[in-house]
Specification:
Number of strands: 0
Radius of gyration: 21 Å
Structural class: mainly alpha
Oligomer: single chain
Length: 280
């Protein structure tokens, strides 16, 4: 085999390995909604929007904002503008804790809004949100894995995918699903302001996750010894995995509770005859 053919096969393997966990999550979360389950066509469209459009546009917008902020901080020097400089530590934290959550959650939210006509039940909102988020998470993981591949080869790429598949992929799915829930509350039930509130919830989840996984780096910035910082990085990763696992399970519970009551939704949504039958 030529080197070019080998590299192509390696890249293909990276995308396939990154895709498999996202598809497994997608099949599972779609199956949670048992009444009038959404057809695969709209689900796949949402996934592809998150994977292709949202990721690329988000990266472009974030790059433009960082470049503009860096130029502004140089034109107007001062410690109060350091956070705008993408080359500074403060600028990096501003990117991952503020810019990225607002931009990425906004673009993913547009993917949910684009399925407005197909959101007939409140449970549909989180399913579409998770679909968009899983697409975003898959493609982002593949890009990170390609970078790792350039440095450490295929084993490094696979390692990145495995770690991010139980962390950032679930984060993107859960945060956008929360927006989807709020959007469905507004669209289906007419709950005023639900879309805006749950968008901020999604942004908050995203920012909190980024802060948790960056715990070791944050401590190092404040002068904590490397040994403690490395331990904090491991603790932060474990905490982040726990956070997103709980969040994803919470999304599944919201879908069940807002699905057709007689098919197993929350007891408070079920007719009295069904509640009585379940107790006997």
């Amino acid at each position: 085999m030529t080197d070019l053919t080998t590299e192509f096969l390696d890249f293909l393997a990276i995308f396939v390995i990154a895709l498999v966990p996202a598809v497994i999550y997608l099949v599972w979360i779609r199956g949670v909604e048992r009444y009038r389950t959404i057809a695969w066509g709209p689900i796949a469209t949402s996934f592809l929007y998150g994977a292709v459009i949202a990721t690329i546009v988000a990266a472009t917008i974030e790059g433009v904002l960082v470049a503009a902020g860096t130029s502004l901080s140089r034109a107007v020097p001062g410690p109060e503008f350091t956070f705008l400089n993408g080359n500074s530590t403060a600028g990096e934290f501003f990117l991952i804790l503020v810019i990225a959550p607002f931009v990425e959650e906004g673009l993913k939210a547009l993917g949910v809004v684009g399925q407005k006509k197909r959101i007939r039940l409140v449970a549909d909102g989180p399913v579409f949100g998770a679909s968009v988020g899983l697409g975003f998470g898959f493609f982002e993981d593949a890009l990170y894995a390609i970078v790792a591949f350039a440095v450490g080869g295929l084993p490094a790429a696979i390692g990145i995918i495995l770690v991010r598949s139980v962390s950032s992929v679930l984060l993107h799915a859960s945060s956008t699903a929360m927006f989807g829930y709020g959007y469905a509350l507004s669209h289906v039930r007419g709950v005023a302001g639900a879309s805006g509130r749950y968008y901020l919830v999604a942004v908050g989840m995203h920012a909190a996750y980024n802060a948790i996984v960056s715990l070791g780096v944050i401590l190092l910035v404040f002068g904590v010894p490397n040994t403690v910082g490395d331990l904090a990085s491991v603790v932060g990763l474990v905490a982040a995995v726990g956070f997103v696992t709980y969040a994803f399970q919470h999304i599944a519970r919201l879908i069940r509770e807002n699905d057709f009551p007689s098919l197993g939704g929350a007891p408070r949504y079920q007719p009295a005859s069904i509640r009585t039958r379940r107790k006997t």
